[in-house]
Fold each of these.
Amino acid sequence: MSYSVSPIGFVRSCFKEKFAIPRQPHLAPAARGVLELLPPFDQGDAVQGLEQVSHVWLLFLFHQALEDKPRLKVRPPRLGGNQSLGVFASRATHRPNGIGQSVVKLDRVEPGRLWLSGIDLLDGTPVLDIKPYVPYADCVGEAVNAIAADAPRPIAVDWLAPALAQAQAHERRLGEPLVALIEQCLAQDPRPAYQLPSPQRRYGAAFWDVDVRWHYPQPGRICVLEVVEAARHA
Ligand code: SAM
């Protein structure tokens, strides 16, 4: 038996590629985006009352990780990428039906558009449903997860002075908290845990329309090297 679902909208996100997106929502409060609703949900009626809600659940498709053959086991990055786990014990993107769920902050509502922050969603993510977060039911005080007990410990992020000046200039142009976004995302250490980076190795990711380059001058420490417009990067 099969059922079909259709997106109710798509997310325009600060994240233009999967690399360096935090592994869960809230880890980067400066990660912002807009959920653009499709007809008929782009009418005011569909979001009436939502202005009374601070957070929403988004159910969405991992559209860049869909696979034909279901996996039973996955290797979550949190466990270093070399330990496997049952797919249902993990929040990995490769899963049956490719459905993701995130609680995100709802900053503003208008007909056809929801402004969101703290997102962990790639640009263009198809959203299947929106539900208000209900604190008394959704916040489980005694909940335990021994696999992911705490948020990952952030690592130190330093800047070369010219890179910080570049980021501040792009922040003014974009009207987005770019410096905080870069710091919050890089503090999650996006590098695969099995890679031991030499100080010579350069890493990069795109946020909004800029490319950010960084390296690891020493283990557990990131230094941002440059922040340039994506198309103009050499
Ligand atoms: N909070 C969600 C959940 O638990 O279902 C997502 C968790 S998943 C581990 C988060 C990762 O999904 C991000 O780091 C990003 O790399 C990836 N991701 C986000 N949006 C995606 C999309 N549309 N397609 C494929 N991968 C995506």
Amino acid sequence: MNIKNILARGVFLLSLAVVFFACTEERKPIIPMPVTDLSVENLIPKPLKIIPTNSAFALDEFTGIYTSKNATGFEAVGTFLADKLEKKTALQLPVNDTSLNKIERVIYINQSDSTELKSTEAYQLYINQDSIIINANTAEGAFRGIQTLRQLVPETSNDTLAVHKIWPVPSGKIIDNPSFAYRGSMLDVARHFFSVEDVKKYIDILSYYKINVLHLHLSDDQGWRIEIKSWPKLTEIGGSTEVGGESGGFYTQKDYTEIVTYAAERFMTVVPEIDMPGHTNSASVSYPFLNGNGKTPKLYEGTHVGFSTFDTRKDTVYSFIDDVVREISEITPGPYFHIGGDESHVTKKNDYIYFVNKVEKIVQKYNKRMIGWDEVAIADIDSTSISQWWASEENAKKAVEKGMKVIVSPAKKAYLDMQYDTLSKHGLHWAAYIPVDTAYIWTPEGYGGIPLENILGIEAPLWSETISTIEELEYLAFPRVIGYSELSWSTPENRDWEDYKVRLANQAPFLDRMNVKYYPSPLIDWKKSKFSYETIEKD
Ligand code: ACM
């Protein structure tokens, strides 16, 4: 089947409908659809444009999914959609099976070269009575489009419309494109280690909200979390503990590749971070020649910062870093390598600048673009490198003067480890308390006077000093990270707290079904569902 057949079929079915409504005698049983309003659906992030047509597509067992032939990755997107819809509805929708006679309605994922598609992530979603068409330039755009479609499929079927089960999808047209290309979340697996399964679950939920970057903070004073084959003690010794003295852990390169692949299947880029020259105690315990603070290093299980540094004037330190960057870059398909660079309080300023300049060259040698926390802007770095603004507006402005791009992650607005309020079970509050409304009501566009063209995107970091389980991770991340997805995807005109908080309340059935233990903020009138948060908490 191709798009011409489908459109022809749509026209055919439309004429059938006209005949049906014009005549009194009974014809093919067209299912009467409820009146809907696509513009009030609970979509997050809010799409660029929504044009409702007030009818519905009847998703049911007679629906088939078709994708453009010879379009790279499109069939996989179709299969992903079928799998997710099966989990939600138990329907087993065939993908690209043209041999079936029973198919009456189609979801068509179409590669289009329309100039209206403004980026690789742009998509158009047309929902008609008998067809849903997703147009995108790339599989990435199609993938973003099917997340919107997933959100439009009701959690429960409407069993009054026909003798079989039907999930009515509100009809209309959606034109969508992200505001920012980089929409990230960071997870600190160094202070406490999180398993591959935990990280995959996090990726799954983030990708549902169109977040496209997972930044992994892979090393810190308390732990080294990624296997480096040429320096095995990093994980043998440096990976053996974590905050509070528990047993730590690390990803083998195979584990890391599994995470990267899982993320790539969801069009999410993994950004690996090796934090240096400070935050390096676990590396120096493993290989004491790295240490530059003159002390004999011991494993550290506390939460202080700023006491460790590499010896920035030793050539062997740079050979070590070259191996680490090379090995990680070889298994990282994404374009970025994050070198940390924050809170190097015991590194002299000149040494720090010397260090960042040298490490930037190593990162570039392995064809990666360097990202560093905002302090790196004080070095003589290249305009192609990126500064992640977490603390200092002055540093962010320096980055702009150097022509660099900035990732906006201000701790007082975007740190997921900040407590919601004084009653929060987990988290810290050194930057601020960040309730769900504060997390949402700010404008990253032009934040702190940074010109829009210098802003690569937004990232919400989750540091793990106070959390060690997936439930605790979810308590801090959700629901706030859902708001950051909207801040980074949707235009300022499409963002409104009063409107957002209703859409957020309606995420509860999805989050409950996914067993996400979000913080049930009292600011939100959470929609009850059969898998309610309270039920899961008690079990
Ligand atoms: C940071 O929070 N130290 C980047």
Amino acid sequence: MQAATVLEANPLREGLRMARTPEPNAMVIFGATGDLTRRKLIPALYNLHASRLLPAGFSAVGVARRPWTTESFRETMRQACARHAALPVTPEVWESFARGLYFVRSDFAEREGYGRLDELLRTLDRERGTAGNRVFYLATPPDQTPAIVRLLGEAGLAQRRPGWSRLVVEKPFGQDLTSARILNSVLREVFPEDEIYRIDHYLGKETVQNILVFRFANAIFEPIWDRRYVDHVQIAVAEAVGMEGRGSYYDRTGTLRDMVQNHMMQLLSLTAMEPPVTNEANIVRNEKVKVLKALRLPGIDEVPHLTVRGQYGPGYIAGQPVPGYQQEPEVAPGSGTETYVALKLFVDNWRWADVPFYLRSGKRLTRRVSEIAVQFRRAPLKLFGAELEPPEPNILALRIQPDEGISLRFSVKLPGLQLEVRPVSMDFLYGTTFGRTPEAYERLLLDCMLGDTTLFTRNDEVEAAWEYTTRIMRGWDAAPPPEFPNYEAGTWGPDAAQRRIAADGRRWRRF
Ligand code: BG6
């Protein structure tokens, strides 16, 4: 009984409330009329407010070029929250939240706009008690980042007055290693590294944070988490969606930059890292960087043997016809951009030497599923009859989404008079055990206000991830152009990806 009551009260949310209330602050959102603000940022702030996790007087100031006013901003955000916030939008809660929403109309390149912003922020300090603490969130196209950051610096907004100033930057963080380095140096001319929050929203997902808890709060897995027991690791981030109106961005980006360089490299480093000695932000991030720095960099001519690129043609998703990539709006006809990547990589350290990590990600695959599967070596002896199939290897699968959970596959005797061995699995599901968990952006916005950088990407992490992915890009540039499209929408990707892993005597997990 007791346990059930505790669970209904949602221990995660209660825990957050007790332990963590940020100092009063104002969050400035550049790109306030865009999709990210409407779908993710303001709904996440609303959920935090409704859960009483925001400090009193918290204010969010939208900045954008469109001729909106504070009134129209509030009204548009109310509709956005009604649609996208996880918690219900009730009149009283909305009213108290909306009182902290403001809008400043300005072109991001216009100096005077920063002056007006500064004035408003000072007023909020006086009237709402935001105490000189600011978060500057850039929900803007990446090419605007350097100019905005420089102008924030020139306007004196990046300085600690009394209070702090933090910068949040969305991905993509550069286009390759060189551009990421340049961007890092621009940001660090204006903000110190510990006030720069590079967002990778995967790190805000409960199931992703749980990778470390699962590995290091349980003593039984760590001793077998290495090359002696693990045959290989598969990391999949599959999506059923296509371009969703982002054709122009995607055609310049492709899956390697959009998913592999950031989200998948984060999943990989959390899976492969050594135990940190404390859970302090830089100690954890030091261990993650070591994994990325240990990635074996393939020679340019090895790249085609270690990777498979794909692009979807027309097909069917859940029985409905969908267009091919090249027929999507804003995609160049004859485009050579990949919408699917599969690759094999190695982490050259003592723990993982020669253990392959197989990564795959793609758009318009059969269904949405993200998972990390650690496949253990087979039992050494065929004890149960030479004529029987060898028992299936044990697999520990961390399901990131959907159906968030963990499953462990092992073999048992099939009941009956004959000896037959069958794989079964033991499953833990977050939904049935804990109920609703906070959205990724709730956690990340709150951590940023709290000054906790653990779930944000440090400059050296970004650069190490780019070093590897840039090498893959160079290998592709040097190879003959791929023949696209090479997989039908609604399938699991190009046949070549199946053949490639089969050549290693392994197969992709089926979902
Ligand atoms: C974004 C990518 O970072 O992540 C998108 O730009 C992708 O292309 C999205 O669809 C996936 O996020 P999630 O949380 O739905 O797995």
Amino acid sequence: MKRDLVSVLDIKDEFKEIIDLAITMKGEHKDGMDIVPFKGKTLVMVFEKPSLRTRISFEVGFTQLGGTALYLSPNEIQIGKRESVHDVAKVLSRFADMIMYRAFESKNVVELAKHAEVPVINGLDNVEHPCQAVADFMTMVEIKGDLKGRTLAWVGDGNNVLHSLLYGAAILGMNLKAACPIGYKPDEEMLTKAKEIASETGASITITEDPVEAVSGADVIYADTFISMGDETEKGSRLKAFDGYQINMDLFSKAKPDAIFMHCLPAHRGEEVTDEVMDSPRSVVFQEAENRMHGQKAVMIRLAGLR
Ligand code: CP
Ligand code: NVA
């Protein structure tokens, strides 16, 4: 049966294995030992929103594995508008061996995956960003080793990236403390699910409104934009609500002395993070960005059942 990656939960039982595979494949790539199992295969990438990392990391990664990647920009397919999600899924399945979809609506990703006959990978929607979580935990494992008992602190919006990190941390037994203002907390149902998983792996999940409480003693500090793609009309109210949620050196200094700083990027320097933190030696944001490619190569290999 074909497999998809719509939510981190779709790879729950092999999350750590995929991270380990990504680290192995990164090493193979650096040694010039890439395998080419996707020779003659095509990845179709459908974007409803802009992208730097996701577009390039999927295209370069799939090419390294021997295949060809096709980029469809926001104006092209217009899923659900020009043509139904069902019909797009059926047509793409006749051409593509794998589909990556960046969407506004999570329900469209779910539906595309349901009707497509080839694996569908969520390249970010309004609910989750599972590929980001794979790369992020891969980066944390590279730097910190075993993540059990370590603490990841999130400061900012209870958004798609946080949702995927909540699942990933719970699965890996890593504690997660998130500081989000009132009205911007993560989804209740997803939080409950993450806590359920955390109770099995011995991790704790704490949601607070206090950034200092979240980062105190943490191993990893994580920031994302206050204004996600699709939220642009709320810019004014959001900037007001997130006043005090910026990661600056003062806040960073409350974490462990060897704590690292992470950001999925794009960063809005001077908003959610200062230049000083972004450019500090403990910022690992570009290693994290690179790992998007290695993580996704491992995901694609795994979904195709090749390793
Ligand atoms: N982090 C991330 O997904 O970046 P892009 O929006 O540039 O793809
Ligand atoms: N939360 C951000 C992540 C961008 C990679 C957004 O959805 O725009």
